[in-house]
Amino acid sequence: MIHPPESAIDSIDREILAELQTNARIAFAELGRRVGLSTPAVIERVKRLEENRIILGYRAMVDPAKVGLPVRAFVKVTIAGDKLTKFATLTQRIPEVLECHRVTGAESFVVQVAVRDVGHMEEVIDAMMPYVATNTSMILASPVPWNSILPSHRNDKQPRKRRPSQTS
């Protein structure tokens, strides 16, 4: 049974999520040690968080520059109403698109792309052009490239004491 997030999340789940966002490859035994639960209890909680679609997946974060795509930009896109769905589908087929968000305001979408150089940027923007007017902002630096949604509420990284009768 799928539960809404409000009833599915408690303080231990929040700690588990914070730890997994920092290191999704952490062993269940170590995760249990950090949040004060047994390994089976942690496995059960992670499974429930996945089943409830609170955890949507696990990914490797790759540095685009180190795989030949050092230029990143946000392409702000304005589209006429009947072309919104077509554009959203198009962006899913462009491999240089890292993210695409439907937004409010003057633009319809904000698309983050990673490319080799300015010429490659032109090709990617041209691939979007049948549907859109664009405004592009190059990314110079990313002081916060990604942040945890639920940071740990604990100030220290010391493990909590295991709760005697806690199993899930």
UniProtKB/TrEMBL annotation:
Q: Which SMART domains match?
A: HTH_ASNC (SM00344)
Gene Ontology biological process:
regulation of DNA-templated transcription; response to amino acid
Q: Which Gene3D superfamilies match?
A: 3.30.70.920, Winged helix-like DNA-binding domain superfamily/Winged helix DNA-binding domain
**Domain HTH asnC-type residues, every copy:** 9-70
Q: Record's PROSITE patterns?
A: HTH_ASNC_2 (PS50956)
Say yes or no: keyword Transcription present.
yes
What GO terms are given for molecular function? sequence-specific DNA binding
Of the GO CC terms on this record, one is: cytosol
The name under which this protein is listed is Transcriptional regulator, AsnC family
Organism, scientific name: Granulicella pectinivorans
Starting at the broadest rank, the lineage of the source organism is: Bacteria, Pseudomonadati, Acidobacteriota, Terriglobia, Terriglobales
